[in-house]
Amino acid sequence: MIECNLRASRSFPFVSKAMRENFINLATDAALGKSVKPHPGKPTQYIAVKVPQFSFQRLRGADPVLRVEMSSTGEVAAFGRNIHEAYLTAILSTGMRYPQMRSVFLSLGGIAAKRTFVAGAKKLQDMGYVLHATEGTHEFLDEFGVPSKKVEKLHDGKHPNYRDFLREGRIGFSLVIPERFTDNTKREVVQGLSDGYLMRRMSIDLGIPIFTNAQTARLFVESIASYTIEDLEIRSWNEYK
Quick one: signal sequence residues (predicted)? Predict the structure, then answer.
C-alpha cells in the first residue's frame, strides 16, 4: 500500500498516470460535492514503480542510511512488463550504474539482514559473481554453502580491506547494512558502526553503487539477473496499455 493524500503529493499524480485516470479531477469533484464514480481498478499489462533519488554525493560526510526523516530530493517513476524491468529502469534513471563487473562486497549488519539476503547471495553466486564479505557475513554465508572471500575490517588495519578493493576498482556494487546493538559489547558495535559509515561514505564519494537495505538489494539482484542493460527498451508511456 502507498500513501495517496488529497493534496499535491507526489504519489497522487504517479497513481493517476499508472492507472490512466485523472484522480486529481475526481478528488476536486468530490471536494465540490459532485457525484463521483469509483474507479473500477482495471487490470493492466504493466507494472509501474517509483523510486527515490538521493543527493548524498552533494552532502559531504552524510551517512547514506535512510531513517524516518525525508531524505530523498526527488523521485523517478518507470514502467515495465514486470516489477524487475520497471524497478531496474527506475533505479538506473536515478543515476545508479549497472554493475560493470561481476564482483560484489557484502557487509550485512545484524542477523535479520543476513537472513533476508541469503537468497540474493545465492542468486549472485549462480550468476557468476565473486562475493567479498566481512568476517561475520563471510562466516554466515559459509553456513549456507555460499562461498565468499573474507575482507578485513578497516579499523583492524589489515589487508585486503574495503578501501583496497575500491582503490583497485574491484567492486561492481556493495551492500553495507548498519550494525544494530546486539549482545556484543558496546565498543565492538560502535567500531562496526564506524567501519560501516566509512565504507558507505567511500562508496558514495567514489561513485560505487551501494545499497543499505537488504530487501531493496535483493530486488536489485533479481532484476539484474533478469535483465542486462541492453534488454531495457525505451518505450513511450502510451505503449503501456
Answer: none
**Boundary residue ending a domain (93, 125, 142):** 93
Domain count, the chain: 2
- Quick one: cell of 193? 558502526
- For residue 30, what is the domain's CATH number? 3.30.470.20
Q: Which domain holds residue 190?
A: 103-229
* Amino acid identity for residue 71 in this structure: S
Q: Which residue has the higher pLDDT, 69 or 203?
A: 203
Q: Which residues of 88-114 are buried (b: 16+ CB within 10 A; e: fewer)?
A: bbbbbeeebebbeeebbbbbbbbeebb
Q: Evaluate whether residue 152 is within a structural domain.
A: yes
* Strand ranges, E, within 9-129: 47-53, 74-80, 103-108
Query: What does the pLDDT look like over 13-34, one tens digit per residue?
Result: 888 888 888 888 888 898 899 9
Helix (H) or strand (E) holding 211: strand 210-211
DSSP string covering 16-46, please? HHHHTS-HHHHHHHHHTT---PPP-----SS
Query: Residue 153 is part of a domain; what is its CATH number?
Result: 3.40.50.1380
